[in-house]
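Look over this record as teaching material.
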Amino acid sequence: MRNVHGGVEFISLTEMKRPTTIHRKGITLQPSKKGSVASCCLFSNFMDYLAYLSLSKDGKIALPKECDCIILNHHFNLSHFLVESEEYEEVNLFLPNSSAGKVLTRTIMDRNPAAVDWSGSYIHFQSLRSYAYYKFIKNKESL
């Protein structure tokens, strides 16, 4: 998946634990299929974005639909996101339940009154990805 600087964000589940970037790092924007929309969803990384797609398709969690999806890819890209997010009426945050994720969430919510924190939907998990793993894999293993 290409980021706004032309870098490529990718992951190989057999070779690495975290997504990586070839060339320059930057946020990745996946526009809504409906064209111009008033809301966006922010994810910390590619894996959380994929978890969102799986969860929203399967109906495992009530998630906003028809929004632009923005993947931060690295916390250094926060300032770029803050500028991008000003044009949205609603900003849905799917950031990790870690100390870094909480700082990012608080920073965005202080700056943008349209921000909505969704991390409570997966409060017992480190991230949206961890929640999706539990819903799709762990639940099936216990059957």
